Amino acid sequence: MKTGDFVVGLDIGTTKICALLGENVGQDEINIRGVGIASSKGLRKGMVVNLESTVDSIGRAVEEAERKAGVEITKVYAGIAGGHIKGMDSRGVVVVSGNEVRKRDVDRAVDAAKAVALPMDREVIHVLPQEFIVDERAEIKNPVGMPGNRLEVQVHIVTGAVASAQNIINCVNRAGFEVEDIILQPLASARALLTEDEKDIGVILIDIGGGTTDIIVMSRGGVRHTQILALGGDHITNDLAIGLHVSTSCAEELKKSHGCALKSLVPEEGVIHMKGMRNGISRGLLCEIIEMRIEETLTLAYQEVEKTGLSPFLGGGVVLTGGTSLLPGIQQMAESIFNMPVRIGKPERGVSGLETVGTSPIYATAVGLVQCGLEQPQGGKVRFTGRNLFAKIAGRMREWFGEFF
Question: Which of 80, 296, 345, 361 falls 20 to 30 Å from 111 in CA-CA distance?
Fold first, then answer.
């Protein structure tokens, strides 16, 4: 990667589509030169349900980023999420071809680990090495060059529905752009937000978007668990629209301007008056509805983490990000549910340029996509088409994610 190289991260979310153009300025620093945001009407729970609407939104977001950056965009790194994403652990074992572990032995071990039976409509997206074992020596990050006869690798495999990924690629292509790569969105968010210390001592990242809540658990430098919950900020908005008898657009505005995740933090007698509303609305009732949905979402996330058995070893606590993390009181609620320290994740580290990007959690995924794209080997930049899409992505990205996680 040379100074001056730039890539575009395309965060295709349920509520918004964000295109971010970032330039490498050296020493793990990126400069944001352009950002474009368009409302997203063609996705539900992270998956494309209306191609034409999605194509239009992608085009508007990328074109806005082009105008602001003064650069013509032809290729993007696209994020992928949705309830179809599944994660699993696997192991692979090979006999070392010689007395010393070489890169080809590592590749064979990872290939053996990812040789799992999958339905025809699913394929591997990422193969993320967690640790290597050479003979009896465990918790090895990079075994190349070590003496040994037996090499074992433990990996976390992320799989997705072929049709969902192909829909994303089709939408980007029809908008007039090429897909350099597809990257799991919580992995991109983790790249932008988590420190090396957090990933080593153990941390939970929870990205609460419009249609989904993405969870990733990291420990000892590797990904230990991934899960996508089909709950997000849109569910809060829908609850408010029904409970308060207002339109969806009004409910969204009420949530953003007056919402709070803890009813106890707002005055009980407070009344909200908005243009176009005949009667005032109790802020206490507004926040009570929000609190119930946030509590449900964070409790489900907590239960997912508990399944891993890693809770006692996650010294880095919880990092909350995504648009819903902007709600006042959500940090305190998360601390109560997880009984851990909680911080709001903003993509501040190594990001310069447009100030609003580094100071808001809504840009975390897009920033991570740019960072991931800039870290890829130049030789791996190709356009993906055909039935072997996921196999190409997994093979090329295996080493990449193994390095920075």
Answer: 80
Pairwise CA distance, residues 80 & 100, whole Å: 38
CATH of the domain spanning 196-346: 3.30.420.40
- Count of C-beta atoms within a 10 Å radius of residue 173: 16
Per-residue model confidence (pLDDT) at position 349 = 87
Its pTM stands at 0.89
- The 10s digit of each residue's pLDDT in 286-309 is 999 999 999 999 999 999 999 999
- Rounded-to-integer distance, Cα 90 and Cα 134, Å: 17
Task: Give me the pLDDT at residue 396, please.
Answer: 46
Give me the residue label for tokens 């190594």.
350
- Residue 154 exposure: Cα atoms within 13 Å on the Cβ side: 15
Pairing of strands 351-353, 29-39: parallel
**Please, is 39 exposed, middle or buried when counting C-beta atoms within 10 Å of its C-beta (0-12, 13-18, 19+)?**
exposed
* Domain boundaries along the sequence of the chain: 86-158, 196-346
Decide if 301 contacts 260 (C-beta within 8 A).
no
Distance of CA 92 to the CA centre of its chain: 27
Strands 75-80 and 178-184: parallel
Q: Which CATH class is domain 86-158?
A: alpha beta
- CA–CA separation, 393 and 78 (whole Å): 12
Hey, do 86-158 and 196-346 end up sharing a CATH topology, with the first three levels equal? no
Separation of alpha carbons 4 and 23, rounded Å: 6
